[in-house]
Amino acid sequence: MLQFVKYSYNAELAMSSINFESTYGVITIQDMNVVSVDANYARIYGYQSPEELLSNIDSFLDLIPEEFHVLAYQNYLETVSGQRDPQVHTYTNVDRHDREFTVFSIDHVTEWQGRPALQVTVIDLSPAIQLQNVVREQDKMYHDMIMQSGQGILVHRDFKPLMVNQSWVKLQGGESIEQALKLDSILDLVPKQNVESIYRRYQSVISGEPSGMSNVVENIGLDGVHRFFNIYDNAITWKGQPAVQVVLEDVTQKVMLERQLVHQANYDEMTDLLNRRAIYEWLREHLVSETHLVCMLLDIDDFKSINDTYGHMVGDEVICALADITKRNVEAVGGVAGRWGGEEFIVFIPNASPQISRQVSDQIREQFNQTEFKIDEHIRFNVSVSIGVSDSRACEGTVSIDALVNVTDQSLYRAKAAGKNRVCGDVVAL
Q1: Do residues 328 and 368 lie in contact, with contact meaning Cβ atoms separated by under 8 Å?
Q2: 207 three-state secondary structure
Q3: Catalytic-residue membership of 343
Q4: 427, CA 20 to 30 Å: which among 22, 159, 235, 321?
């Protein structure tokens, strides 16, 4: 049976999408009778030969369901008389063996034995439709796989999102895919200090440089939360133009754990200052450069008596107070502070002038001495600190870590011997 599916059909569009390797056949109709048919047409409709087709029908109308007879006859009359331009049609048909197939037909006015006739060329679209269905099914499969993936997937061009899946939205703390696609640029989700490096990476990927390497990036989600993602990005073609596909996974907990472990390995647990191992590491990097260092050693005066009188918890409070004061003043001038051991601290300030080193050491001593420690409503006390200062340029010969610390320790000893609560030592003038 033949079903008329569509009449107003865009011929240019149809012709551009037809697989011309499909079987096509030709039939000629005059007064609705079949006057000529080729072998391909016969086979398309389930017959072994033109002769078999012609012997099984009395009229072209026999190939058409009865409800379309009037419409087909009207189309024939108007076309051969010139009242209507030749048409193209798409039919869903059932052949004599009940096989359903689809044909694309093109009408053409011709002559047969000196009289007008209608020549119809039909193309079997079944292979193309089957292929299209397979492609559509594959597209749906890949679409479902991408949209349902647990990994966040983004496609962007010049950082304008073109496609995101639900997992990407969830990982970014967003509300919907629509919200994500409204973003003008995903660079809005990147900390400002990282934008330049992200842009350089995009340029290298889009230019075709080998990719496949993962990269951990910091991200500020749609909900304002800072997260870290491991991303894999590669160049693709999206709707005919270059774009970048990004697959990401949340590694925030891993990054935070790694940072915590690094911090624990390098910082004193009580004071949050550099520990001795990290101090040596920092010095190794800076002593090989042309930078000169001002070194300070700080020791809390009479600390043993504080522990003996008020207990170790109060002693720890005193240590932490000096650590906070030292760190605040030293970092303000680009230096670093560490816990050298017990109640003793060490400070390094690169390229500090005598004025700066004296100012910093005096500020630490004064601020610490002015800090009041309260045991209860009746017992309060203050503590002092002695500070030794030296300059790496004052060391004889090649500067070593031990030599610099030893010179500074001698200055600290002089401060203690001179009565405590004071700064001793010299810094070489520039």
Answers
A1: no
A2: coil
A3: yes
A4: 321
